Amino acid sequence: MKKLFVGLSIIAAITTACNNQNKKNTQSQKEQKTEKTKEQKVVALLKSIETGAQEPTSYINPNKYTQHNTGVADGLAGFGALLQQVPKNSAKVNTIRTFKDGDYVFTHTEYNFFGPKIGFDIFKFEEGQIVEHWDNLQETPATPNPSGHTMIDGNTQIKDLNKTEENKTLVTNFVTDILVNGKMERLASYFHGDDYIQHNPNIPDQLSGLGTTLSVLAKKGIFLKFDTIHKVLGQGNFVLVVSEGHFGGIHNSFYDLFRVENGKIAEHWDVIEPITPKDTWKNNNGKFNF
Q: Which residues are in the SnoaL-like domain (predicted)?
């Protein structure tokens, strides 16, 4: 009888241990299923500027966070200091487009953050945490562009994932040929005839609209010239190009988002931000160090 009791006790102990392990496994599986994607983490972090939520800050590596917005101090402390400066209940954040390219997530967002702005943000991840941030911001214009488009409306559907690298090459070649090297004789080869949707606040739709605008500006002595391409990111039919150059003699950072359709450029959004003098920067990381 004693042996039977001992045997039953051992079986009970094993059963309990197995049940506990199963519970742990189930809990672990649930945690894995609910783990946020990189894109979700970025969107939540940006939204926390509006809501004041604390959890999204845990997505930032507290020991390694490099800030490239030259108006914000480096590290997690710099991000926290920025949030403290925002007047209560004043911030609004509406992320329209979110993309992923390897360790990078880039977004297209409508802000009311020290005034209405449109911005592109780029975040780099390492081991599931954000370790680096770049952005470009421009004041939101009061009215749509000549074709009735805003800086954020338009197509949002990500497709053609198998053509990501092909599309990145196409857009890189376009920016290099036309905006860096000024080879305007190649311009038409990148578009389907005159079809082209434009979201720049000052330029109308169609390729001819772009050409007319640049011609009018040139007659006024205002020229657009890209000097350097610093980063090209893409997902499917969308490609973001980060460049440095001059517009009307002003040293600018250019973030240009292109949508590609059937091997040609079909739509364009951009944000242009003047580069401030280095002696005003709150960090020394530079705006373009990737």
A: 172-268
1-14 burial, b if ≥16 CB within 10 A, otherwise e? eeeeeeeeeeeeee
The pTM score is: 0.88
Place of tokens 């975040």: 123
Top pLDDT among 32 and 179 is at 179
Query: Residue 216's pLDDT band (boundaries 50, 70, 90)?
Result: confident
CB 282 within 8 Å of CB 70? yes
Torsion of CA 260, 262, 266, 271, to 10 degrees: 0
Q: Which residues contact 186 (CB under 8 A, 6 or more apart)?
A: 177, 178
Q: How does pLDDT run across 163-176, given as a tens digit for each residue?
A: 999 999 999 999 99
* Residues 79 and 59: beta-carbon distance below 8 Å: no
2-6, 156-160, 184-188, range with the lowest pLDDT? 2-6
Is residue 124 in some structural domain?
Answer: yes
Q: What is the CATH number of the domain that holds 47?
A: 3.10.450.50
Strand-pair partners of 272:
254
Its domain, for residue 176, covers 161-278
Q: What is d(CA 8, CA 159) in angstroms, rounded to the nearest whole number?
A: 60
Helix, strand, or coil (residue 192): strand
Q: Total domain count for the chain? A: 3
The reply to whether 45 and 28 lie within a common domain is no
Cα of first residue to Cα of last residue in the chain, in angstroms, is: 74
Half-sphere exposure of 74 (CA within 13 A, CB side): 10
Please answer whether residues 74 and 67 qualify as being in contact, where contact means their C-beta atoms are separated by less than 8 angstroms: yes
